[in-house]
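Input:
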Amino acid sequence: MVMAQTEKIPDLIGKSVPRIDVREKVTGAAIYADDIQFGKKLLYARVKRSPYPHALIKSIDTSKAEALPGVKAVVTGKDFPNRIGLYLKDKHIFALNRVRFVGEPVVGVAAVSEEIAEQALELIDVEYEVLEAVTDAVYGATPEAPIIHPKLGEYEVPNFIFPQPGTNISNHFKIRKGDTEAAFKECAAVVEKTIRVPHVQHVPIEPHVAIAQMDETGKVTLWASSQSPFAQRNLIAKTLGISQSDMRVIAPYVGGGFGCKAGVTMEAIPVAIATKVPGYPVKFRLTREEEFYTNFVRQGLTIKLKVGCDADGNLLAMENTMYWDGGASTEYGVNITRAGGYSSTGPYDIPNVKTDSLCVYTNHPIGGAYRGFGMSELHAGIGQVMDELANEIGMDKVEFHLKNVVQGGDTLATGMKMHPTGLSKCIEKVADAIEWGKKSPPSAPNKRRGKGIALMWKAPAMPPNPGSSAWVEFAEDGTVVVGVGGQEIGQGAFTVAAQMAAAALGVPMDWVRIAGPLDTQYSPYEWQTVASRLTWSMGNAVKRAAEDARQQILDMVAEAWDENVDDLDIVEGKVVSYKSERDISLKNIVIYGIPKENDQGWIGGPIIGRGKFMPTYVTGLDKETGQGQRAVVHYTTGAQALEVEVDLETGKIDVINAVSAFDMGRAINPDLVHMQMEGGFVQGLSSAIFEEMMLKDGYMQNPSFVDYRIATTTDIPKKMTTIIVEEPQDDGPWGARGVGEHPMVPTIAALANAVYDAVGVRLDGPPYSAERVYMAMLKAGVVK
Amino acid sequence: MAHHTITLTVNGETEVVTVPAHMTLLEMIREELALTGTKNGCASGECGACTVLFNGEPVNSCMVLAVEADGATVTTVEGLAHDHQLDPLQEAFVESGAVQCGFCTPGMLISSKALLLRAPNPSDDEIREALVGNLCRCTGYVRIVDGVKKAVKIAAQSEE
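Output:
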């Protein structure tokens, strides 16, 4: 492996160049999936959904809907009997025989207008036999609970997911390291705590939308707001019996993803319907209400923790039992459970660990990927028990964290060796910036101030071998076109890819274009835009493609000039020789090649660079102990510190100051990194204070922006500081790791710890709404 | 289904459109005029992505019927720049890093434009108050507020 530290860092790396997509986006010119015009043949799909959390389908009568003028297709589960799923294949595109959550698709309709499609839904009669619903994951894991997937043992599943047929447990990940029972006896202080993190929704401002069309030869095109065009091609094609090469996915800009547009969510629905009406494009878009209650969710978590340390504050043991509310089926839930399991200690060095991470089927919406992939929920618990344990042993929290955090070379709970990490530096920097240990006076007599700190780590949670690829081509004027398969979802992936290509080639930034929109027919393969993996994985592919192109150019010029390649370089779009001091612009030569002297023929030809990257070193973990050589590719770490003010009369929390520091190895574009830290923090704050999908008996009570509140302009702290720490990644491009998800991960615990510091109360979980904080203060006798 | 023919001014151009009675202004702008810069985020007046200037006032175009726009003057995000010259707000949003996924951006720009039309030099709190109905999930709003402040400076410089 090349050590990134020894490599020369080009000037463009670490430079805050402006986003390359920004002009399109401020002028309204940027195209999103719903903006594509399809003309008069366009059909609109609507879906009749389950009104029950758990029921058997006794009969479906679609005859009246089919007879309605303007209706072109009506489909049910029987039309598409194959199962679909990213990890565990446990669901159907439309429910077959049984419904498992309120909102599950049962019948699909395509009509000439959305109004007619809606009318058709009203004409469909579905008869159900209602079953007992499971609406609590802890209960769902017991033998008394009704079984939601009786055929669990028949489902196709990869070898790192461990379902337990005959139960509702779709994955059980274990760690057994050392002897926790014996170690707890040695502890001077032990804290036990149960935290409940409610379901939350992603809330991208752009709702899901997908348009599909099948042509007369059976080839299918899907246009979708998508983080995963290649995964969608693969999964949808397989389920519908289409060759992957006959399934084309075109994915323009995404108006916010946060994980909800990864894997296959609703995109298979218009494709399935389109196969019944060849020649017609079929558009399906979720209403905001559907976006809330039918779309994949950040699943709820009940986490039971026990952690202990010796009299000097050294952590000795942890027991961690997590019940993930995976919902009706588990597109991602089983792997979130796994990620929660192998990262279950948080970023702490603990010699004795016992972890049980269980994904449990319930009759709730389906658990999907959500920025942080289980880590915000896990750290909501870890961050608070560590705070309490430091209190318990009477040690300053910053000192306690510094004493116990993982360092490079530590053996982690899975047996993996930790790589160098800047976590201690992150802790020191946030403590410094928040003026840790200094108490500032409240702004009014009825208010109390407090400070809190919390840490995090997160590894990209993926199969062992997710691949990236890229190509680099040129236009006659020397400008560069970079092909990527990773998506621009707002995080700045296209800008960073262009920046890396420019840096590796030696051309000015404004010479580089990204080939878009993503199109599986032309774009190079990329597993998915998830896991904060693009800067690192796709970045490696882009860098290699650019270096490959550069090598081809230098070889060509060396031959033409009869010089040694080692004496040549590309600087600012020109090939220069340090030996002969000649130079030549890339213009024209990158397409036409270079003429030999005296018209004696040509050298070269169109340059096309290619690059790929795939981690090859991730190993399996033992099913019973969770032990293995290398569980993950790497960990990004960080810390957050908050100062809050709590109003004793209302329970309202104001964040006075928020400081974040993360170690992303190398900030390719520091401004974009700061933007991730700011936006991520506010999303985390929103989840900590406001957000909860209120699920009652399986029904969401608050599926609108009025009743499900997210942070607005008036909720953000007046002071926010974001700090970059760089401890280079050995196999990252110029040392880079991802940082997209991480900034929201420590926020719930940091806020909870600050509130505790201010008023001495903790809730059993978020949201820390004014009402809940006030009630907790009342109960604790803080207010009367 | 009853249809109506209406005449209105959109981004300085006179448009004559025949629309069904129940069509919203948002649908008309996006589907009849193909001005897709105005976004549909909730269709229920809660997210602000579809904000347009309606006779100079910011409105959620999903909550206005197209027929109500008969005789009105409407400005969408496409009408902010003139002769390829960005509006100071657009320029400031670029410079401040106020844009990530970009889906809330058109509505944010229009609400900010409405603010600056009535209060050319707003305070921080006025900016936050004016944008409270425009939801953004990416940026954490900080740089959007900065962008509006920067636009005031850019506009002042160009007048000097």
